[in-house]
Amino acid sequence: MKVLIIKLSALGDVLQTLPAVNLLKKFYPKAQIDWLVEKRNSELLLENPLLNRVLLFNKEFFLKPKAFYEFIKELRKTFYEVVLDFQGLLKSGILTFFAKGKYKIGYENHREGSPLFYKIKLPAYDPEKHAVYRYLDLVIQTVNFLNGEIKNPPLERELFYNIPLPEKRPDFSFKTPFILLIAGARWKTKLWPYENWKAFLEITKDLRKEIAFYFIGGPKETELKAFSEEMAQIYDGVFSLVGKITLRELVYLMKKALAVLTVDTGPMHLASILNKPILALFGPTSSGRTGPWSENFIVLREPLSCSPCFKRSCKNPLCMSRLSPEKVKHNLVELLYSKTSVKNLA
Description:
Layout: E1 2-6, H1 11-27, E2 32-38, E3 53-57, H2 65-75, E4 79-85, H3 90-98, E5 100-107, E6 120-122, H4 131-147, H5 158-161, E7 178-182, H6 194-202, H7 205-208, E8 212-216, H8 222-234, E9 238-240, H9 247-256, E10 259-263, H10 266-273, E11 278-281, H11 287-290, E12 297-300, H12 318-321, H13 325-337, E13 343-345
Parallel strand pairs: 1-2, 1-4, 2-3, 4-5, 5-6, 7-8, 7-10, 8-9, 10-11, 11-12, 12-13
Helix pairs in contact: 1-4, 1-10, 6-13
């Protein structure tokens, strides 16, 4: 059986889809699974043994008729028994339409008119359900449609963690033990203010006598790069890897890390896949929908009536600025030195 997964972006969404692909492979071990993804989110899918082929799409193709035609011509060379739209947006719906497939499947309440392109519309999903479980349900309902109802789907915990990811050892030495600090995000409202990060570093001198702190981030996060390099000059035991490592190198480093302190962003989900202890700072988004899922995590958020608001801009994002450095340090210590399991704290 040949299956096409359509999940174009973003990095966090792609990573949250991997347990569903793992489950699909459990049901159909011999299935050939292809994945259609935007090129910028493809690094951890390339050479992944779960996948037969990775099809790289550039969103600019929609504005370049010739490039779009050539891509669709290549896409249509393969006939798929099942096409699964995990994205549920207009762009993924269009690609679902052009793919050659017997069954084109997605949820009936997917957005931007994408269900118009499905042959099989699954019952509406609960938007409050965590994305990982929503994607797992998409696979389970697809299997139910193809083979009849499965009463006890195999949702063992290993599905969430036993996911092969390509990795590469960085060609530089790093201090151990260490914690990764993930301070960047695509939404400005998700950011913990730099003054809070600096105050946090001020009060963690005792921790940094034994544990190194490494800021990580992408090459386009120039403001974060400048800030983290400044912090590395001011504080002992603080280092900046912002813009200096690839995602595959991050996989290697994250496996070695003691824990991850992060805002709501893509690498947080990589930490979940690798089952690392996570301290996650949430404000405008819902940890119930897109939070960490490792076996040991703490979510910190302020109990404000306006949070979560899911807004990308805010004149006064109190939900993040009011998260005190003292509270963050206290919970980081608890995460590191206690056997506390899953928590969501107000």
